[in-house]
Amino acid sequence: MIFNTFSKNLAFILLVLSSLNAYTQNLEPLKFHHIQDGMSQSSSTVLLEDKYGFIWVGTRNGLNKYDGKDFEIFTNSSDGKTGLSHEYIVELYEDDENLLIGTNQGLNVFNRSLNIVAPFPFKNEGLQIKDHSFQSVKRINGSLWLGTESSGVYKYDENTGNLKHLPVNNNLDIANPRINRIIKIAQLDDNRVLIISSYNIIVTNNDLEILNEVQEIENIISTIVLDDNTLLLGTNNGSLIRLKVSLTSEIEKEKKPVSPGFGIRSLAKNLNNDFWIGTENNGLYIYSNELEFKRHLEYNVSKPNSISGNSIWSLLCTRNGVMWVAPYKSGLNFYDPEYFKFKHINTDPFNSKSLSNKLVNCFIEDPKGNL
After folding, report:
1. Could you say which of 149, 256, 340, 369 has the lowest number of CB atoms within 10 Å?
2. 209-237: per-residue pLDDT in tens?
3. 172 Cβ partners below 8 Å, 6+ apart?
4. Structural contact between residues 277 and 222, judged by C-beta atoms closer than 8 angstroms
5. What distance in Å separates the CA atoms of residue 137 and residue 44, rounded to the nearest whole number?
6. C-alpha 170 chain-centroid distance
7. Residue partners of 225: CB distance under 8 A and separation at least 6
8. Which sign, positive or negative, has the C-alpha torsion 349, 355, 356, 358?
9. What are the CA-CA distances from residue 255 to residues 239, 244, 251, 291 (Å)?
10. Are strands 33-35 and 332-335 parallel, antiparallel or unpaired?
């Protein structure tokens, strides 16, 4: 009886896997265009599209601005006045005024009128944190909220230079935890802020007073904001967590294994509301808005239009629907739904239905839609 039950369960699992495999094989393959040259370094750490349509690419060795054809590179400062304070870029944030660049040592700002990058002009108390590693940046109600690698969150008043500080909770009930860095700062409403660290989910008021806090045993390494009170988190264990915060600051988590044993390094949502999930050494997954599996894409040396690597450090969906993928040490890839839609029709002496000549002088469409 036990054997029969096991056999039925095994048969059901094999049927489901077979159906998924058949489903993915019938999907039209996604073809990626590769950009290998022109950047300051081949490993992108963070991607951003600014309000003018430029693609900004942060790397481990400088900042790159891409206009669709060429890269402009910004490197470290030689005089401490212009240039990056550090070349390892970990955060890019654009508000109504500026593009802010978080690095492993200091915050920087891009001056659009002068087209230069310079260290952020901290003053007064703010000078205490000018050399911190800034992992997350958010402007809320006129103040800069700055998440650091190991020192928690600072709220900086640009007018007065005053600081408020919320240290990260390192009293964790976890074996061998990693650095508890700030992953994301998001505004819930006019009075509440959500802070995501590697192991903590915190709701505060505008004065950095904690309203609620829960611990996550899996190391959170990536996030995207879905709406005002919902985020998607990726963990180092390969799980997705859909996080919701209620109006009373209650925290609800729904966890789903996606890539067990392979961390989820990056997350993005395309214009079809599908989630693109970049992993460490396990390629790219695509899930529906309901968190149902759709595709698993991996580097394939025999397919020149596959993704160019299996460790996906950063993802970006632009306003026109182009998906940018940044595999580790493999440049940039992009998937444009419109890019590969042209089908080439040529002459073929062995095909009577091919073109009779490569020189085409004109087109006409008949009433039936034929060319």
Report:
1. 369
2. 999 999 999 999 999 999 999 999 999 99
3. 180, 199, 215
4. no
5. 18
6. 26
7. 184, 186, 231
8. negative
9. 7, 12, 13, 10
10. antiparallel
Neighbours of 258 (CB within 10 A): 22
Q: CA-to-CA distance for 311 and 2, rounded, in angstroms? A: 42
For 163, the token pair is 């600081």
> Tens digits of per-residue pLDDT, 346-371?
565 666 656 565 555 556 655 545 56
All residue ranges of the chain with pLDDT < 70 are: 1-26, 175-176, 340-371
Residue 6 backbone phi and psi in degrees, to 5: -60, -45
Distance in angstroms (rounded) separating the CA atoms of residues 121 and 158: 9
Among candidate residues 283, 288, 339, the one with its CA nearest the CA of residue 23 = 288
Residue whose token pair is 């005002």: 228
Token match 């600072």: residue?
A: 154
Instruction: Show the tokens assigned to 33.
Output: 């265009």
Query: Rounded CA gap, 159 and 143, in Å?
Result: 9
Partnered with residue 338 across adjacent β-strands are none
Buried b (16+ CB within 10 A) or exposed e, 140-176: eeebbbbbbbebbbbbbbeeeeebbebebeeeeeeee
**CA distance linking residue 8 with residue 1, whole number of Å:** 11
The token duo for 329 is 């040490």
